[in-house]
Write a structure and sequence with these properties.
487 residues, alpha/beta, Aldehyde Dehydrogenase, Chain A, domain 1, Aldehyde Dehydrogenase, Chain A, domain 2, 7-stranded mixed sheet, 6-stranded mixed sheet, 14 helices, binds NADPH dihydro-nicotinamide-adenine-dinucleotide phosphate, binds glutaric acid, Succinate-semialdehyde dehydrogenase (NADP(+)), Ald_DH_CS_GLU
Length: 487
């Protein structure tokens, strides 16, 4: 039973144009707790009609919101930040109920999510243009940065707050308006954020939430609309590619934060205890369901046995269970499909000679729970090598040389995050420069922070979120050429 000290955060309607509304056709969809499989609530099931209405409202709100001075927009965002933090515990409970992650992780995500709101409230006041020396003495050249306009956002279930705030906050900070489609599995955090945004003073239409299980229909309305000037998406590479194709019709700006296949490399000069600690954090956060999770663990052969021993010991201390139970460190996978996918990846490896040093199958566990698993004797022909696992499964590969580690690390179409542990300073530079990734963690397993640019290369995406760079994705540069200056 989900009880909140602020019950108004459990919404039962969509939020469009500053109003709490039902779907036009009165249909609903259900939100479930992945740990218990119990229904939490039924919500109105939005489709293209509601999405179009939200886009129209965003367009109307844009005219006035972009004229509000940056300082005033920042004040609204700071109020929103404070309200999110004031309601941290309730939001964390809501998140664990619909997403499954342990409460401690949910509390951390609420703070992480709020940090983007605070950060972009500050950054929104620091949007600068340039004065450029013209070739012609009769001219002066300056640039302005202006909001791109109406933005559409589509977000995944694995970070039900942070993936939203790091899109909505920069958009609002610079004067854009935004329509959000949250994941079907986790609409409740999105609606709670909208409720707090309403209290903070975000004007009607500037931020709408169109929740529903008709992703293709809502996405189609967003991508086909000429009013929407930008699409920002976090999710699978497959859907990201589809959305980019759909956006081509109206040449929208896009930001794509897509899948990963992160190598986690342990060199022979690494501090092995620190490497185990970093790997535990990177691999098992959110039961392995993050796009920056270590996916392939590469260990230099001279330290392989020692490292694997320490790693398996650490994994054996993890506790699987309902995330709302104190002490649980691994919650359920998000749904049956996720469970089926992770089980199949592990089965394909073990059927072909991989050895589960711990874990290996969900047999004996309830519902969607998958045990933390370490696989040895793995090779590059297996799906654990090439697929984004998105589960608590760690395949450990052996390598001989630094060159080989870099080559294997880069042997994937993805390029989001990579990690390595080493102490030799020359090696640290060589490997950092050699890895084809947007993010590299060096002697560090957790790289996420609002102050740094988050994003990938290759098929992991386009654009950066967070940091001073994240705001540029919501701005257009306009160049003003002024003639007639000379007398
Ligand atoms: N980069 C990342 O952070 C993430 C990566 N993934 C990867 O993707 C795999 C599958 O996860 P999944 O949840 O299916 O990821 P998806 O990419 O399918 O879902 C992400 C978001 O896109 C929406 N969506 C799905 N199809 C469409 C469409 N045709 N048009 C518009 N929007 C759409 C989803 O809506 P709805 O929820 O209604 O389906 C959700 O809001 C995972 O196993 C993992 O490997 C998944 C999530 C996050
Ligand atoms: O999995 C993702 O999509 C993003 C990872 C969350 C983060 O660390 O910012």
């Amino acid at each position: 039973m989900l009880t909140l000290s602020n019950p108004s955060l459990l919404r039962s309607q969509l939020y469009i144009n500053g109003e709490w509304v039902h779907a036009d056709n009165e249909t609903t969809f259900s939100v479930y707790n992945p740990a218990t499989r119990e229904k939490i609530i039924d919500l109105p099931n939005a489709g293209a009609t509601e999405a179009h209405r939200a886009i129209q409202a965003a367009d109307k709100a844009l005219a006035s919101w972009k004229q509000v001075v940056a300082k005033e927009r920042a004040t609204v965002l700071k109020r929103w930040f404070q309200l999110i933090m004031d309601n941290q515990e309730d939001l964390a409970r809501l998140m664990t109920a619909e997403q499954g992650k342990p409460l401690a992780e949910s509390r951390a995500e609420v703070a992480y999510g709020a940090s983007f709101v605070e950060w972009f409230a500050e950054e929104g006041r620091r949007v600068y243009g340039d004065t450029i020396a013209a070739n012609n003495p009769n001219q002066r050249i300056v640039t302005l940065k202006q909001p791109v306009g109406v933005v559409a956002a589509i977000t995944p279930w694995n970070f039900p707050i942070a993936m939203i705030t790091r899109k909505v906050a920069p958009a609002l900070a610079v004067g854009c308006t935004i329509v959000l489609k949250p994941a079907t599995e986790t609409p409740l955090c999105a609606l709670a954020l909208a409720k707090l945004g309403e209290e903070a003073g975000i004007p009607a239409g500037a931020f709408s939430v169109v929740a529903g299980n008709k992703a293709r229909e809502i996405g189609g309305a967003m991508t086909s609309s000429p009013t929407v000037r930008k699409l920002t998406f976090t999710g699978s590479t497959e859907i990201g590619k589809t959305l980019m194709e759909q956006c081509a019709g109206t040449i929208k700006k896009t930001s794509m934060e897509l899948g990963g296949n992160a190598p986690f490399i342990v060199f022979d000069d690494a501090d092995l205890d620190a490497a185990v600690q970093g790997l535990m954090a990177s691999k098992f956060r959110n039961a392995g369901q993050t796009c920056v999770c270590a996916n392939r663990i590469l260990v230099q052969e001279s330290v392989y046995d020692a490292f694997v021993d320490k790693f398996v010991t650490a994994v054996s201390a993890l506790k699987v269970g309902d995330g709302s139970t104190e002490g649980v460190t691994i919650g359920p996978l998000i749904n049956d499909d996720a469970y089926t996918k992770v089980s199949a990846i592990v089965r394909q490896a073990t059927n072909n000679g991989a050895e589960a040093l711990i874990g290996g199958s969900g047999k004996g566990l309830d519902k969607n729970f998958f045990p933390p698993t370490v696989l040895a004797n793995v090779d590059r022909s297996m799906d654990v090598y090439s697929e984004e696992i998105f589960g608590p499964v760690a395949p450990v590969f052996k390598f001989k040389t630094e060159e080989e580690a870099i080559r294997i690390g880069n042997d994937t179409p993805f390029g989001l995050s990579a990690y390595f542990y080493a102490r030799d300073i020359g090696r640290i530079w060589r490997v950092s420069e050699g890895l084809d990734y947007g993010i590299v963690g060096i002697n560090e397993g957790i790289i996420s922070t609002e102050v740094a640019p988050f994003g990938g290369v290759k098929e992991s995406g386009i654009g950066r979120e967070g940091s001073k760079y994240g705001i540029d994705d919501y701005l257009e540069i306009k160049y003003l050429c002024m003639g007639g200056v000379s007398q």
